[in-house]
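A further point concerns the way the authors explain their paired sequence and structure data. Since the whole study asks how a given chain folds, the encoding of that fold should be made plain. A single example would do more here than another paragraph of explanation. An entry of this sort, consisting of the sequence and the corresponding backbone structure tokens, reads as follows:

_____
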Amino acid sequence: MVTKPSKSQKKIAYDKKLCELLDQYSQILVVAADNVGSNQLQSIRSGLRGDSIVLMGKNTMMKRSVRLHAERSGNMDYLNLIPLLVGNVGLIFTKGDLKEVREEVGKYKVGAPARVGLVAPIDVIVPPGNTGLDPSQTSFFQVLNIPTKINKGTVEIITPVELIKKGDKVGSSESALLAKLGVRPFSYGLVVMSVYDSGTVFSPEVLDLTEEDLAVKFATGLSMLTSLSLAISYPSLAAAPHMFINAYKNVLAVAVATKYSFPQADKVKEYLKDPAKFAVAMAPAAAAASGAAPAGAAKAKVEEKEEPAEVSDDDMGFSLFD
């Protein structure tokens, strides 16, 4: 006779398993498991088999085990998991790529009917067209103010109608109509709510960031840091080049306004005394920027295009018929 383990034995085994997983894995996906059936959950476990483990359980049990394990191990980072254990949630422990694991979990969604009392996760719109229902079923459409007409002995919806809005509870009339139409508007599966990585908790949207996105955000942050450093005159690596340039401009302005000078200022003073020199110095740069070729090159190019004059037969002392 096989004896079933008692509740206390189950709790001890669950606590031991959770603590072992916390020690072995540094990456955890906290997932919502609303309306996920046991068969669907088994399919997800099979799909993730290899480097990921799905662990479900009561929130009170998980919180207690996490808290006690943090105290025993001295790793208080585990306590960051406790605020995430709210509602019908589970944990996916993984050593794989977090983004790939999330995408794999998203594959196992199952269509579900709109049952009475459910909160709609999306808008439900009934498209126009033939429903295949006989005219005796028009009462369902009339209750929901859906415009219809009878076409070839069946009910046809004339215009698209927003039957249920996201966040609204499904009523009995909406549920009955969708069931008659054979529409399963909702789909359910494990949804990643938060990501735990070595003590750090962040939103799953972070997993969608590319290297280009990170570069743009880094550049934006660097620009803000530079602006702040310049505004409060606080030196930083980001603001140092700008500070040096601004300091050079100030020293140059003082040299121009006074008799004090230095080699770089001498050239500026010379240009200020004779602006024509500045125009001459800028001419080659302007020509290069506009794509104009130097005069010598243009002349040589014209000469290359000129073909030598043809020599007539008369100049050679004989004609073609001699």
